[in-house]
Amino acid sequence: MADSEALPSLAGDPVAVEALLRAVFGVVVDEAIQKGTSVSQKVCEWKEPEELKQLLDLELRSQGESQKQILERCRAVIRYSVKTGHPRFFNQLFSGLDPHALAGRIITESLNTSQYTYEIAPVFVLMEEEVLRKLRALVGWSSGDGIFCPGGSISNMYAVNLARYQRYPDCKQRGLRTLPPLALFTSKEVGKRHRPNPGLLILISSHVTTPSRRELRFWDLAPTVSEWSRLMREGKWSPRIWRGRLVWPRLRLTFHFFETFILDSGAVPFLVSATSGTTVLGAFDPLEAIADVCQRHGLWLHVDAAWGGSVLLSQTHRHLLDGIQRADSVAWNPHKLLAAGLQCSALLLQDTSNLLKRCHGSQASYLFQQDKFYDVALDTGDKVVQCGRRVDCLKLWLMWKAQGDQGLERRIDQAFVLARYLVEEMKKREGFELVMEPEFVNVCFWFVPPSLRGKQESPDYHERLSKVAPVLKERMVKEGSMMIGYQPHGTRGNFFRVVVANSALTCADMDFLLNELERLGQDL
Ligand code: ABU
């Protein structure tokens, strides 16, 4: 056996390790947390990529650096990164900084384990089970299953995979080519990144989107007039009367999208993916009505509540998700509105038949030995197609322990209140035009600069208006004063989407946002 000594490194010098980590934590607390959440500081420090590369000195060299240099590098990383916990960061569906969740993330990173077996993650296996149980209870289920996934899109794709497997449990043995073409239904409004991804799943011959502007219209799946009559009797749909006659809207569409499509293509519908809180507009699909249709046709109902799921904590607003308890699966991202920290995305299932493991399991014998000395049902790794899995439950669990249901509910309610405040303030000012009355905390609007006010009838009005948001975005980012996202949407040109999610926000931040847009756009 060759002689071996520990290599000279920090690892062999506990005093130096402690000094480094204390210094790094100091930098993190001062620069990333205190300054990073202070309105007296910039939300971002924009640099062109070439300049940024120089400033960061990215090249990896053969020689290691001193602790002093390493600390400088940590400072630079923080300095040039976007401060997503800053009260002027309105750019994404996540924002804010919860100290308890952050503490959970630090512990998770320090322990550096994988969630796949009880033997190496005993605390986190039990904790994940409890957190998922709590989330399921809020959905309205007293039993079920679930798993934390690397993001909402993966949760959605898992739901599609599970629905297919449930319908064709022998598909793993027989191969996908033996299955008929399958069709799923979802709203056009579903963000591209949240759509179940046909390329990856290799299963969907046709991805059918409904023609709706904002939401999945359940009537796209309702096949007969008698179905309409029943919905009307149950008060789930109100007919329109025109010239004394009852109008059956979308009836042709009904046949086109459900019966004709299916008959012509031979595709078998198997899943409807409804959305609770769409990415851009924050719209909620009518889940009860969609669940009725799914029940009638034996379709799996998946609810993508990645964004809106946290509203279930609010007694005041949870009605937006009425019917969610009838879903087969739900995707819910507490890293969004609850600010648990990236990433924290749960896929919840009503299923109690071990569907996740049956569908995804590969029984790797080096991890999931069946003759272990403990209950092997605690090894959750076979519920997912990936192998190593991050611990995503601790940050949510610790924050929930600190806040309780009540603290989290207050946050959700406060976000709705502030979004409403912003909308009402916009209505008082010239130059702000709402895209729609928000249902949620996404406030979508155009800033109409002085030169375009009163010019709505001009033929190039919409084209010129669409160019305003990109210009203002560049200005705000280069000044570092705030960050708001913008996007085109359907036939609409670019408009801003402010996401009011950070629990540290106040009315003063809303006023700042409006004043700042006016200031940045006064010469346009
Ligand atoms: N997962 C979609 C998030 C997109 C956004 O933050 O706007």
Structure description:
The chain has 16 helices and 14 strands. It is globular. The structure holds gamma-amino-butanoic acid.
* N-to-C order of helices and strands: HHHEHHEHHEHEHEEHEHEEEHHEEHHEEH
Report the radius of gyration as a whole number of Å.
Answer: 26 Å
- Our measurement of the CA-to-CA distance between the termini, rounded to an integer number of angstroms, reads 76 Å
The whole-number mean of residue pLDDT values reads: 87
The coarse silhouette is globular
Distinct helical segment count: 16
Strand order of the largest sheet: 2-10-9-8-7-3-4
- Helicity, in percent? 25-40%
Instruction: State which percent range the strand residues make up.
Output: 5-15%
A few lines on this structure:
The protein contains 16 helices and 14 strands. With 524 residues, it is of the alpha/beta class.
Can you tag this structure with a few keywords?
binds gamma-amino-butanoic acid, globular, 39% helix, alpha/beta, 7-stranded mixed β-sheet, 16 helices, 5-stranded mixed β-sheet, 524 residues
